[in-house]
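Me: Here is a favour to ask of a fellow structure person. Could you put it straight underneath, so I can go through it closely?

Assistant:
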Amino acid sequence: MGSYKYSSRAKDKTTFFSEIGNIAVFSGRTLRYTFSFPFEFREFLKQCYAIGNLSLGLVAITGAIMGIVLTIQSRPVLSDFGAEAMLPQMVAVSIVREIGPVITALICAGKVGSGMGAELGSMKVTEQIDAMEVSATLPIKYLVVTRVLAATLMVPILVVFADALGLLGSWVGTNIKGSVNIVLFFSHAFSSLDFIDLVPALIKSFFFGAVIGLIGCYKGYTAGKGTESVGVAANSAVVLSSLLIIIVDLVAVQITDLML
């Protein structure tokens, strides 16, 4: 019984490290084909539309609600310390530096990452990817590179959009129990933002997008046989990309802290 437990743990460790190695190899192949010609520009634009436009409504609603809730929850605490006038600055820094990028990336991981995993997984199951390889077409260049680049580009744009809607939602939340001019509110909010707030948050958003695209494509591209593997690929893409987003955010926060 003890030897069985030991062998199971050893197998789990081997599977874990082999998965890391496979992801690294897949990322290396994707990076190599990214800089090879010709570039599938039409497919890239198609994926940008699918990721950006089709995620815009969900990101907008989430960003606005995020700003309203954060404002309503923070107002009583600041009022206790007599610092209610600092509410726009506090909300702006919180949304721009941390909440906006992370929440938007997690939403995209659930919507975009699962979609990539399911789409490529179904193509793998129905042997469409194998057919592309037989016909001398590079599926990783057409299917993976375009999706990864589209996610890397569109997630930061969605983050900026969510930040703007979050600040607008914060202004709405502020006016629920008061009356603040929108110009005055945004002037106070932007007065607290600095270079160290904007640029690192935007840079890590590119990494969030790359993680979502790579993991979603990897899980779909390496899906197993059978229809159930499509669901497994979509689910594991969301779980792993969400975990890696948190890890990337942790590393980005440490690097930003060293810059201060």
